[in-house]
Input
Amino acid sequence: MKIGIYNGIKDIEIKNVEMPKCGPKDIIIKNKYAAICGSDISAYYHGGDDNRIFKGFEFGHEMISEVVEVGKEVDDIKVGQIVYPYPLTVKGDSSRSATVGGFSEYILCPNAKLNQTVFPLKENISLKTASLIEPFTVGTRAARRSRPQKGENAIVFGAGAIGLSAAIALKFFGCDKIMIVDLSDFRLEKCAKLGFETCNSSKEDIKKKAIEYFGKARGLMGETANIDIYIDAVGHESVIHTFEEMTKLFAKMVIVGVHHKPLKVNFLPLTYAQYEFIGSGGYMVEDVRDVMTIMGNGKYDIESIITHEFKLDDLEQAIIQASKSNESLKVVIKY
Output
């Protein structure tokens, strides 16, 4: 079988190796689709240690798969079943969550358990859409961490899969108005087609447009936009500064984008405005279930955010394409 190996910056190898052997408590799955994550792109260009993508490992972690072999002691998983491999547990080692083998033809799943290491896919979700379950669980976790209430307003920075999934989840949880901010018109057009207000912050005044869309509210330094929830799905200090400059009293900022460098935060306005910074990393089982519900209800054309499809032999080309935010949103490998 073929496996994709990460060997370092701009060094990816497709190797041929022996098929794994299935033990009595294990299953073997065949990947059907695998999506390129932002962490895969970051590892390719800058190094993978920050994202736990280590040299010499088969990598990839956003996939949907078919069960092709089942150990004799596994009684709740069947050959032919379509499953979502849960990256935190599917290899029996949470440190492998970014290197579970999404870019490999087959994966050995030790001590497999249904609804713990793999989750059955609902029949009304397409395989291609299901390849986005993992990034959507990350975005859904970020939305959940904001403790959204029915009727609240939210602004999401970042029109990639995580930002867009956070916006969809915020709607699912009951938020009223949502705006997505990005620099890519290509990605923002995709968001607009899914029903979201958008803002290109390189061309438009965020605060002015936000006040026009959300209405006015009281901020520490005067009038500002009526936004209850901010989501940083970018990981850039400018997003934090924007939040500090235009937040209303008691607003919340959830940070799911990865900040690689320490930031300076002024705690004085945080104290007096009583706003919050909330971290969000990864996902939980409840997020998998909510994403399955969101994808299954058909309200959003989630598959439309997949812009390119490649074969495994072209993995490096796929990662390069996924890095082009002005012409790509989500890129997948089809097996």
Q: What stands out?
A: The CA atoms of residues 63 and 156 lie 25 Å apart. DSSP finds ten helices and 18 strands in the chain. The longest helix spans residues 133-145. The two ends are 12 Å apart (CA to CA).
